[in-house]
Amino acid sequence: MSDGYTDADLGTLRRLRRGHWEPTRERPGREATERYTHREFEGSTIAELFHEATKYSRRRPTAGTSAGRFVSEDAFALAQSRIPPAKPAVDRTALPDPVDLSVPVDEVLLSRRSRRTFGREALSLAELGTLLGLGCGVSARREVAPGVDHALRTYPSAGALYPVNAYLLALQDAGEVGSGLYWYDPTEHVLGKQREGEADLADEIDAAFAPAAETFDVWNAAAVVVLAGAFGRSTAKYGDLGYRFVLQESGHVAGNLLAVATALDLAAFPSAAYDDRALDDLLGVDGVDESTVYTVPVGPRPEDEDD
Questions:
Q1: What does pTM read for this prediction?
Q2: Does domain 60-300 match CATH 3.40.50.300?
Q3: Would you place residue 85 in the very low, low, confident or very high pLDDT band (cuts 50, 70, 90)?
Q4: Which of 5, 143, 243, 284 sits between 20 and 30 A of 229, alpha carbons compared?
Q5: How would you classify the pairing of strands 164-170 and 180-185?
Q6: pLDDT over 90, % of the chain
Q7: Burial of 120 (0-12, 13-18, 19+ CB in 10 A)
């Protein structure tokens, strides 16, 4: 209770402030119906400008020239292979190889759900190794020069540049992987510790996921995979269009993570309900050259959950 308002009062005020139609609670008016069926840009033109500015067309020939050189010149292929991992770390934890998942593809796709309730257990090291290894790890290595390999991933990436970095926000201890912030190095299949799970980090997590408070409690998850885009890796080749490719790639990675989580019988869902600047600060990225683009909270399913 705050300033004489009950929790129910505050909930009603929040819904009114959002102006969002909740079909189980109220009948939509004409304005709401038109808003959700409108097929044209309206209001702010930022989204429209972004879409137009990142189109690939004959009016931007330099983008095509740049992309062509990456394909035809060995020097560019060599440069791609030497893109360094996200961040160095002294404390590195090797993850076990992914386990063999024998779940049929059709079963995984048909049973996938956005599950926002979790059990209380942490993820095991084996589950983390499988989730990250199959979700965003290395699938093969291609020789681009004598003695130099380029690591390919389990998801598609424009130009095989892999501008999306994966961070693990471990909310519960998982044996060798204690609570804290890690980045995932797919080339070595290791987690590099960035921060311990101290009180300051907990406060920053609360602030970063405050926008999601009405839909889920982040602390119920065992971990959150945070995907951040290093935009320069893609725009160096594709110009402004590269920014769009980074967003698309984050969706490819998230889709993989959700599929692997489903095959492991874990709960997971994709979420953009976070404070961008607060989460960027938590990761230690500048929010410009590298910034958060997507998250996937994950954890064991509750024992009493019905499908």
A1: 0.82
A2: no
A3: low
A4: 143
A5: antiparallel
A6: 54
A7: exposed
